[in-house]
Design goal:
261 residues, alpha/beta, Rossmann fold, 7-stranded parallel sheet, 43% helix, binds NADP nicotinamide-adenine-dinucleotide phosphate
Length: 261
């Protein structure tokens, strides 16, 4: 599992990669997701973001010109397909999907033997089934983008809890481990059609989720979500093919087949 701080910086001359790039971010109203929306907009991307709380979605959309808000719950089977339709309808296609929305499991954190089945189910519904359904629903749009030479990337936000057996983090850690492994298999299965999959740990960040998990953590010891967002956006850039400004492709999809993250 790679932590975003270990990733190389964006190559010089690729700063225009994000001009007109069509990106969807789940959980875009708080913490890392909100920082990603802002970072992507500042680089010229067109962004559609998803979260459950209507008022918050509306206020983030109002405050960020160019961002399109979608109200939806990624853990709900009924919501995912309408969300996918709104994203593609608004952006006219999709180049990058960031599965960022997440459920912490029981709070306060509980040992697995004390975890209710419903809490485990909710964590898996949000952290595994949600990204699975949304990625499936958007795969046609992503594959089309890869075929056109624009490139296509799915970034699944992971955690060190996906690989380390931290006591009390069972529901969250097991679900993040499943998402990480899904990403690896998807990556293998889509290597030939040019849809790239990333699964990255942003590091411990000062966000509402972290405060809910570890209320007495000193925020000064935590990464700013804006820093993690910059690192993740550079990882996306490294996975995209080079493009001339305004999104026109300069490499064919056949040439892309050999490219790697
Ligand atoms: N914070 C950390 O230290 C840390 C460390 C490692 C990994 N991560 C990962 O980083 C990502 C972002 O975490 P964060 O700390 O920024 O979280 P956060 O501040 O709690 O924000 C979560 C966002 O997701 C939305 N959301 C939650 N459940 C949703 C659902 N079912 N459907 C749609 N949207 C939903 C929330 O809005 P609504 O509630 O309105 O839906 C909110 O916009 C997560 O994947 C997390 O696992 C975080």
């Amino acid at each position: 599992m790679r932590n975003t701080s270990e990733l190389p910086a964006l190559e010089a001359g690729r700063e225009d990669l994000f001009d007109g790039l069509r990106v969807a971010v789940t959980g875009g109203t708080s913490g890392l997701g909100l920082a990603l929306v802002r970072e992507l907009l500042s680089r010229g991307a067109r962004v559609s973001f998803v979260a459950r709380t209507r008022e918050r979605v509306q206020s983030v959309a109002r405050e960020h010109a160019g961002a399109h808000g979608v109200v939806g719950d990624v853990s709900s089977k009924e919501d995912v397909y309408p969300v996918a339709l709104q994203v593609v309808g608004e952006l006219g296609g999709l180049d990058v999907l960031v599965n960022n929305a997440s459920d912490l499991g029981p709070v306060p954190l509980a040992m697995l033997s004390d975890t209710e089945c419903e809490d485990l189910e909710r964590a898996f519904a949000t952290n595994v089934l949600g990204p699975f359904r949304l990625t499936k629903a958007l795969m046609g749009a992503l594959a089309a983008s890869a075929r056109e030479g624009r490139g296509a990337v799915v970034l699944n936000i992971s955690s060190d809890a996906a690989v380390n057996p931290y006591p009390g983090w069972g529901a969250y850690g097991a679900s993040k481990a499943a998402l990480h492994h899904l990403s690896r298999i998807w990556g293998e299965e889509h290597a030939a059609d040019g849809v790239r999959f990333l699964s990255l740990d942003p590091g411990d960040m000062d966000t509402p989720m972290h405060a809910a998990a570890i209320p007495d953590a000193d925020p000064a010891t935590l990464k700013r979500p804006e820093q993690a967002a910059r690192e993740l956006v550079e990882a996306i850039a490294a996975a995209l093919p080079s493009r001339v400004p305004h999104g026109a492709p300069i490499r064919s999809s056949r040439e892309l087949e050999g490219a790697n993250v």
